[in-house]
Amino acid sequence: MTNQGAQSGGMARLQLPNKEVELPIVIGTEDEHAIDVTKLRGESGYITLDEGYRNTGSVESKISFIDGEKGILRYRGIPIEQLAEHSTFIETALLLIYGDLPTADHLAQFRDMLIEHENIHEGMRHCFQGFPPTGHPMAILSSMINTLSCYNTDVLRMEEEGTFENAAARLISKIRTVAAAAYRTSSGMPLMYPDPKLAYCKNFLHMMFSLPNRAYEPDPDIVRALSLFLILHADHEQNCSAATVRMVGSSGANLFASCAAGVCALWGPLHGGANVAVIEQLQRIHASGTSIKELIERVKRKEERLFGFGHGVYKNYDPRAHILRDHAPKVLAKLGRQDPLLDIARELEEICLSDDYFISRNLYPNVDFYSGMLLRAMGIPVNMYTVMFAIGRMPGWIAQWKEVHDNQSRIYRPRQVYTGPPLRDYVPVEQRA
Ligand code: CMC
């Protein structure tokens, strides 16, 4: 892997009312140009204003690369299409975290660590009983990931050799156990212990669907579909949850606490929660008989959003959506099933992609548009969809946290342009109108 930082691209000149400031231009591996404004305030008193950071490179990062115009996604330089076809989730996780595909020895050693740490402390298992059955699995997941900080105090400080890898293995392994337990809690079913004989994806499906008196034996196509789903969700550069993990981690917060914050950021319907919103939207069309055209007209009148469409960075087809669009029908066919929602989704996509509203705004399907089709084929309940996204995203969050930690980054601290009231005096309550 090329390990170079950004290259120098000369200087940019910024003409301010009373002063000209020279700012360095930096160029990334894929020829992305940026103006480094780190010293701008010190030299001129000005800051940059970019609400929501949409035009701001908050970091130099070596983890994943997106070309939103061309619809390209690569993890550590490797195209997502190749990983989807040839890799496994755990191999991809190690690629993201360490920068290179693992050797056979490292992979085997890491898998052993996943087995060693697949259980959660009995005290944590009891915590699940405290949640109401109506509790949302994402709320339970974020609470319990943070609770791991209480039960894994030996890996909170990263100074000792091997501590980071141990903490990373625990998180990747235990999130599966916690996620399945969150589902079982919300459906009033007994929690299953992990089975050390089972590989990562199969073990998760076992904890989700086995009963104390009957082991669940998943179809191999379902296991492979789960692995594919997790690989496609494993990282996506500086999205809302990754940026949150980095922000929290930059304060020195431990890996568990930082990733728990990532789960909360992921929950929203504009981010990971969109996979639930898509299925609910498709289900509404199916159940109510609303025509697709009617929905599109409502979307165009801005009465609702079309979930699973549009993206902050992709102005082209999301490559993950391409893979899922092809794969979901194949899995359904192999299982001998049909899904009416898939037909609705395809028709919706076809109409949108030839409609000027969507064309002129570069709105294409994103990863969430077809991911629910795979999850439905696996029998995953809808309220678990964003939890599934979180299991997949965990290696990415860990890699992002590690980058902050390894670079000994300064605490993340954006500035603001204050637009509130100017200086005024406190008024005692009895004098207020
Ligand atoms: N349906 C209808 N109109 C849309 C949509 C949509 N899904 N997305 C964007 N637009 C319109 C928006 O109303 C605006 O129109 P106008 O120019 O007339 O004001 C224009 O397109 C630009 O939209 P924007 O809000 O500036 O776009 P954004 O880049 O800020 O938002 C987004 C990105 C993903 C939040 C948005 O596209 C959206 O809400 N999509 C639906 C939710 C979704 O699928 N989220 C998953 C994202 S991918 C996975 C992940 O990151 O977790």
List the helices and strands and how they pair.
Elements: E1 7-16, E2 19-27, E3 33-35, H1 40-44, E4 64-67, E5 72-75, E6 78-79, H2 80-86, H3 89-98, H4 104-116, H5 122-127, H6 137-151, H7 163-186, H8 200-209, H9 220-232, H10 240-249, H11 255-267, H12 274-288, H13 292-300, H14 319-334, H15 340-352, H16 356-360, H17 367-378, H18 385-406
Antiparallel strand pairs: 1-2, 2-3, 4-5, 5-6
Helix pairs in contact: 3-18, 4-7, 6-7, 6-11, 7-8, 7-18, 9-14, 9-17, 9-18, 10-11, 10-18, 11-18, 12-15, 12-17, 14-17
Comma- or semicolon-separated keywords:
6 strands, three-stranded antiparallel sheet, single chain, 7% strand, 433 residues, mainly alpha, binds carboxymethyl coenzyme *A
- The ordered string of helix (H) and strand (E) elements is EEEHEEEHHHHHHHHHHHHHHHHH
Strand content: 5-15%
SSE class? mainly alpha
Major pleated sheet = 3 strands, antiparallel
Helix content: 40-55%
- What ions, cofactors and ligands are bound? carboxymethyl coenzyme *A
Strand order of the largest sheet: 1-2-3
* Amino- and carboxy-terminal Cα gap: 66 Å
Can you give the mean pLDDT? 95
Shape: globular
- Low-confidence blocks of residues: none
Number of separate strands: 6
Please work out how many helical segments DSSP would assign: 18
Q: Provide the gyration radius in Å.
A: 23 Å
Textual characterization of the structure:
By secondary structure, the protein is mainly alpha-helical. Helices cover 50% and strands 7% of the residues. The mean pLDDT is 95. The protein is globular. The protein has 18 helices and six strands. The longest helix is centred in the middle third of the chain and has 24 residues, at 163-186. The protein has helices at 40-44, 80-86, 89-98, 104-116, 122-127, 137-151, 163-186, 200-209, 220-232, 240-249, 255-267, 274-288, 292-300, 319-334, 340-352, 356-360, 367-378, 385-406, and strands at residues 7-16, 19-27, 33-35, 64-67, 72-75, 78-79. A three-stranded antiparallel sheet has the order 1-2-3. A three-stranded antiparallel sheet has the order 4-5-6. Bound molecules: carboxymethyl coenzyme *A. The site of carboxymethyl coenzyme *A has 19 residues, from helix 17. The site of carboxymethyl coenzyme *A (CMC) has 19 residues, from helix 17.
